[in-house]
Amino acid sequence: MGKSHRLTKEHRENLVAFIDGELEQETLRDLQKTLTENPVAQHEIDVLKKTWGLLDYLDRPDASEDVIGNTLTEIQVYQTKSEKFAMPAWWNQVRQGFVYFSSVAGILFAVTVGYLTATQWIPSPTDEIAKDLPVI
Length: 136
Description:
Elements: H1 9-13, H2 15-20, H3 25-37, H4 39-54, H5 65-84, H6 89-121, H7 125-132
Helix pairs in contact: 3-4
């Protein structure tokens, strides 16, 4: 048996899903292996389970009917607005095509500017010699 250590960050992120039984099989096996081999990690999960269980003893405030009604109304209004302004499925293809076209156009523009800069706007040493050739 190796040295006992605390749970890793990845294991900690999965603890609530582990307690609720919502982990995928591979992640579940990995976490169970860690818990069986490591008493410190086992203690951490036991403390979390006890803490999670204590939440049932807290008072749960009851919401008034007005609050429930207003909340449900707001949700319905939000869903209606979302459905009203939802983009059609074909719009994603148009947008992706535009992004592709813009990327290609940007690259071509950059290549053209680079080529013109290198060939037309920056004088080469041979151009200087050719300019002085009639004098020589």
